TrEMBL record:
Residues 95-253 form the Helicase ATP-binding domain. It is a peripheral membrane protein. Its EC number is 7.4.2.8. The lineage of its organism: Bacteria, Bacillati, Actinomycetota, Actinomycetes, Pseudonocardiales. This is Protein translocase subunit SecA. It comes from Amycolatopsis pretoriensis. ATP binds at residues 93, 111-115, 501.
Length: 779
């Protein structure tokens, strides 16, 4: 009876507390069988254990996992980990492995051993004959986890490798040939883009995608889902208008320009327009007329860069370059940039050398990248909060794995203040008070500027702290690892994706018992994040594996979150005259409301982006099927022979080598296919940027986008064949065949990859609607 009540209680808790959670009963029932196999496997030698895994590989080849298979994979993995790492996987890690092998996103709390669970699952898929990519959030974690788990894989007869930016094409090909390959999501995506531009099968580095296991799944699948990865070819520098940048630099807020309350739009006042026009030698009417049509966009972009993007918050200037900061993780977003002229405008604002813009050869969003894999699973510490998005966009369910040891962290109620300055004073006092006890403290800030401001204030009262933010991300793992030492004070931007446990007492555990006795790690949030999930990630740094700890967030009704998403604060909220603290529950409700609004806006942006990119991805997929046919067959030669038999015969006679002939024809046709696709992407960008204006004429923007995009796409294949035929017809033939350079078949001699940061500013349509709404409110 007690067992029945317990099972019913577990189910009720999952229904009430864990929406979207997979029922774990099936997996829990297999745990005794996994444990029962342990004595038998312990008697095997290392070679016999590897042989046993090989036998399972033969049985499993290309079949689905049955319960017996899950039991044996988990038992073999547990024994391999015990021998290789000296760690026997806990039951909760085994549950996590089973969840991953069942293509779920498993939620495991910080410190519960996701890395090992993911490795055992990857080995399981490999034993089933699948090639696995373990997708991480950065290059450091990819290499660290591959090297760390390599002995476990070796005992199971599974090969493992990793890719990183420094790797050559040959090293990448070798890494992808392994059973399991670790790589940062951007690195794997860039290799996909490079492979899409090869003209020989021998140059491909990636095999066909089969299984992806995504670490920090919520960060990759949700936060970065709509971020496009781009491959560009060098054509020129982006010429920012230096004259305009100098003019805009002199403009003053509320005199020459104004911004909206959300910090997403800026516009010139009449006085500002007059100053700008005069400085550029124009009349005000001319600034907005056709004669100066190229200057007005430059002014608008420069104004956005000047007024809405803040150094040390949105970007850093380091080594003479503008580097974006990833808002979700508080670190430099390597190779990431804003689209079009905005990047150049920021570079002009900071007076650094403009980077090459280039011509976009191809791109892919992170969401589309992961959609290539027939089987996807993931792991993270905070999946439930985005369970609906994971289901909607990826058809993935969340499996919540209970902690191995109950979480005893004390999550204190938020403290709310009237103003940011009053809040900051309270945070300083909290740090000073807790530090006097000797407890380690981790402070999570909103951005780099706030981290450094807080560090300066603490230094003035002789409180030493270590600052971890986008300026020193190369050292972050070592710094975070020591954040649990007695007396340590660590100030950091958003903690998502750090990938390193904070052990009480530091990495050597020298003062662990003392820190435990004092109450463990104390986490302080300096403001609510735009997502409750990010709040949870920061809290989760404390209380790992049953350790004591506590967490508290400070907030102000004038924080950016409230001002941007719920500025209409209810009347009657009173703060303490001395401290400015607000104890009225209405303030907390306002904070929660602002956070829900921010989450809703982000979800709607995700949905809207996907509505547009879904068509592009479908077109890209169809074109890649055709491109692959050109790459792997004699299609190009056949088409050119059909189009111009006489010239083709001449070319055939010149080369007198069928393989060379086919390759030359292939290079000509692929050049035109790729060029037309690049042109198509540029066309779709133009359509997307102007399409919202049609909504004012009661036309649906998405329908209009489809109406413009579909006919143009259907022209590509026929047009490529036609252009290739024309190239052959006009080409001067030599003993080497066609001089491709002289024939205009010139690919970019320099290519590079980067991520495009979502344009932080609203579309023209959204701006129009906002103005209409504001007028209605005033009435």
């Amino acid at each position: 009876m007690a067992a029945l009540i317990s099972r019913v209680g577990k189910k009720l808790r999952r229904i009430i507390q864990r929406p979207g959670s997979v029922e774990l009963t099936r997996y829990e029932a297999l745990l005794p069988a996994v444990e029962k196999l342990e004595p038998e496997l312990e008697k095997l030698s290392d070679a016999e254990l590897t042989e046993r895994a090989g036998e399972l590989r033969e049985k499993l080849k290309d079949t689905a996992f049955g319960d017996n298979h899950l039991i044996e994979i988990c038992a073999l993995g547990r024994e391999a980990a015990r021998r290789a790492l000296g760690e026997r996987a806990f039951d909760v890690q085994v549950l996590g492995t089973m969840g991953l092998l069942s293509k779920h996103v498993v939620q495991m709390e910080t410190g519960e051993g996701k890395t090992l669970a993911g490795a055992l699952a990857a080995a399981g898929y490999a034993i089933r004959g699948k090639r696995v990519h373990v997708v991480t959030v950065n290059d450091y974690l990819a290499r660290r986890d591959a090297e760390w788990m390599e002995p476990v894989y070796a005992l199971l007869g599974v090969s493992v490798g990793w890719v990183e930016p420094a790797h050559s094409r040959e090293e990448r090909r070798e890494a992808y040939a392994k059973d399991v390959t670790y790589g940062a999501v951007a690195e794997i995506g860039f290799d996909v883009l490079r492979d899409r531009l090869v003209t020989s099968v021998d140059d491909l580095v990636q095999p066909a995608p089969e299984v992806a296991i995504v670490d920090e799944a919520d960060s990759v699948l949700v936060d970065e889902a709509r971020v496009p990865l781009v491959m560009a070819g060098s054509i020129d520098h982006t010429d920012a208008d230096e004259e305009v940048a100098k003019v805009v630099r002199r403009l003053r807020l509320n005199l020459h320009y104004e911004t909206d309350s959300e910090g997403r739009n800026a516009w010139l006042t009449d006085a500002g327009a007059s100053v700008v026009a005069k400085s550029l030698g124009l009349e005000v009417d001319d600034l907005y007329g056709e004669t100066a049509s190229d200057r007005l966009p430059a002014v608008n972009v420069a104004l956005h860069a000047h007024a809405l993007l803040t150094r040390d918050v949105d970007y850093l200037v380091r080594d003479g370059k503008v580097q974006l900061i990833n808002a979700a993780r508080g670190r430099v977003a390597e190779l990431q940039r804003w689209p079009d002229g905005l990047q150049a405008a920021v570079e002009a604002k900071e007076q650094v050398t403009a980077t090459d813009r280039g011509e976009i050869l191809d791109s892919i969003t992170v969401q589309a990248l992961l959609a290539r894999y027939p089987e996807v699973a993931g792991m993270t510490g905070t999946a439930v909060a985005v369970a609906e998005q994971l289901r909607e966009f990826y058809e993935l369910e969340v499996a919540v794995i209970p902690p191995n040891t109950p979480n005893i962290r004390e999550d204190q109620e938020d403290r709310v203040f009237a103003s940011p300055s009053q809040k900051l004073r309270a945070i300083e006092e909290e740090i000073r008070t807790v530090h006097e006890t000797g407890r380690p403290i981790l402070v999570g800030t909103q951005d780099v500027a706030e981290s450094e401001e807080l560090a300066e204030k603490l230094a003035k009262v002789d409180l030493e702290c270590v600052v971890l933010n986008a300026r020193n991300d190369a050292e972050e793992a070592a710094i975070i690892a020591e954040a649990g030492k007695k007396g340590a004070v660590t100030v950091s931007t958003q903690m998502a994706g750090r990938g390193t446990d904070i052990r009480l007492g530091g990495t050597d555990g020298a003062t662990r018992d003392e820190v435990v006795e004092l109450g463990g790690l104390h986490v302080i949030g300096t403001a609510r994040y735009p997502s409750s999930r990010l709040d949870g990630q920061l809290r989760g740094r404390s209380g790992r594996q049953g350790d004591p700890g506590s967490a508290i967030f400070f907030a102000s009704l004038n924080d950016e979150l409230v001002l941007s998403n719920a500025p209409d604060v209810p009347e009657g909220i009173v703060d303490d005259e001395e401290t400015g603290e607000i104890t009225d529950n209405a303030a907390l409700r306002q904070l929660n409301h602002a956070q829900r609004v921010a989450e809703g806006v982000d979800l709607e942006i995700h949905r809207n982006t996907w509505r547009y990119t879904r068509l592009i991805e479908r077109q890209r997929r169809d074109l890649l099927v055709h491109r692959d046919k050109v790459l792997r067959t004699a299609y190009a030669a056949e088409q050119l022979e059909k189009a111009n038999p006489d010239k083709f015969s001449e070319l055939e006679a010149k080369l007198d080598d069928q393989d060379k002939l086919e390759q030359m024809c292939r290079e000509v046709l692929l050049f035109h296919v790729d060029q037309l696709w690049s042109d198509h992407l540029a066309y779709l960008t133009d359509v997307r940027e102007s399409i919202h204006l049609r909504a004012l004429a009661r036309e649906t923007p998405l329908d209009e986008f489809h109406r413009a995009a579909i006919p143009e796409f259907h022209k590509i294949i026929a047009e490529a064949d036609s252009r290739a035929a024309k190239t052959l017809e006009e080409a001067e033939l030599t003993d080497e065949g066609i001089d491709l350079g002289e024939a205009g078949v010139r690919r970019a001699n320099t290519t590079w990859t980067y991520l495009v940061h979502d344009n932080p500013f609203d579309s023209d349509f959204e701006q129009t609607i906002k103005k209409v709404r504001s007028m209605i409110k005033r009435k």
